[in-house]
Design goal:
3-stranded antiparallel β-sheet, 2 helices, 5-stranded antiparallel β-sheet, mainly beta, 36% strand
Length: 143
């Protein structure tokens, strides 16, 4: 693995999350979908929280959603994050299916301008040659 080119902590993929991180590296947002009941889910898990089935597939999402919740971080104990404050950590409800919530940093908007239901789209920040992280930004309103 190449040496990190960031001072931020990075995720470590495991057998369950590897497909998510591989897709993120390819700049695609994927979530699990239960093959039995069709419900999507995030965070990856071995079984469906709705029907209990262990049969699932990974599906690509539209990459769009709405701000469900957020916090503005003004202080952080991690040196890498301290340099980036303030920043917005958001929970996004995907447009693909209600109640599928994906966390991530919100960019390209002042923290005091964030509102509930703000329409956002995913983008990917390349942290190292091998790791890309999903981020969110407002969808530009078209006149």
């Amino acid at each position: 693995m190449n040496a990190p080119v960031t001072d931020l902590p990075l995720p470590r993929a495991n057998q369950l999350t590897q497909p998510f991180w591989q897709a993120a590296h390819e700049h695609r947002l994927v979530v699990q979908r239960c093959k039995a009941c069709g419900k999507m889910r995030f965070y990856p898990s071995g079984g469906c929280e709705h029907c209990g089935s262990m049969d699932y597939e990974w599906v690509q999402c539209s990459g769009r959603g709405r701000i469900y919740s957020w916090i503005v971080v003004h202080r952080n104990v991690d040196p890498g994050w301290q340099k980036r404050t303030p920043f917005v950590s958001a929970i996004v409800e995907l447009a693909d299916q209600a109640h599928v919530l994906v966390p991530g940093l919100l960019s390209e908007i002042a923290p005091d301008k964030v509102v509930a239901n703000l329409e956002v789209e995913v983008w990917f920040e390349d942290m190292t040659p091998d790791i890309s992280l999903p981020r969110w930004r407002p969808i530009a309103r078209r006149a």
